Amino acid sequence: MKDLVRMRTSLKEEIEIALNAQVKMESEASQKYLAMASWLDQNGFEHTAAYMYKQSDEEREHGLKIFKYINEVGGAAITPTVGEVQQEFGSMREVFEAALQSEIAVTNAINKIVTKCRQAEDYATEDFMMWYVTEQREEEKNARRALELFDLIDANSPTGKFELDKQIAKIGSAE
Amino acid sequence: MLYDSPDTTLLYETKKGRTWQCDLTDKLFLEFDGMVLAFRVQDFFAFRRRVNKVDILEMIFDLSDDRDFEVIEAPLHNFVHRFALCELIQLRDLLNGTKFSLDLHSMLHEVLGSSYVVLD
Fold first, then answer.
1. Can you name the CATH fold of A9-78+87-169?
2. How many CB pairs under 8 A join A and B?
């Protein structure tokens, strides 16, 4: 009797489910950043809005990369559905606090997938996920740096918000 | 395709139906309540996911007539059928039993299969 399951895919079901959940999470993150970008744009923070639009695109790319990987190894990638995301924020700082929380949640989810991969002896997916481990270190660092800038620049000073808008947008680029 | 012909292996059987694997065509066959469907492995898993996704509790507690049945489709097989609550539970039992059988078989292949593992 042939092993039809293994002939079709190298992906174990629990890993496939975890990866599809991660695709959904990355999609949600992309939508959250898009809502943040819109709020920033509406409130005159055009540089940070551009930064957030870019973040939104990046998160979508991250999700798509996993999506394609699932199909590549013979699994079934499921198109994620995303619910309502927060559209209104009390301040610019609140936006970046929410961004950091989102990044921390993504990092935790990725770590859990790596743990699952080790338990299932799926070293190919673990290797694939290590790119995300490195990426998340960078993403969290950037989100923390944004909040750090709020401590360094007084948002209530005459040009504070203007300066914050310019400086936060530079995060991650060659300064 | 009969489940007891050569090159076929019975995977799971209940009072309402059975599933078997054909090694000639690499397909899984499902016989349920008089219907017979042939699936590729990935289509079988997609069909199982669809059936498992039905919210049985919601069907039980929703008293409206349209929740007495659930329409299940398998577009690749030109299949669409209205399943009553009991039928869905019986179908689920058959599909999940088959999945267990396939996984167990895969595991046995891995442990007892042709690959040699060198241990210290």
1. Ferritin (1.20.1260)
2. 35
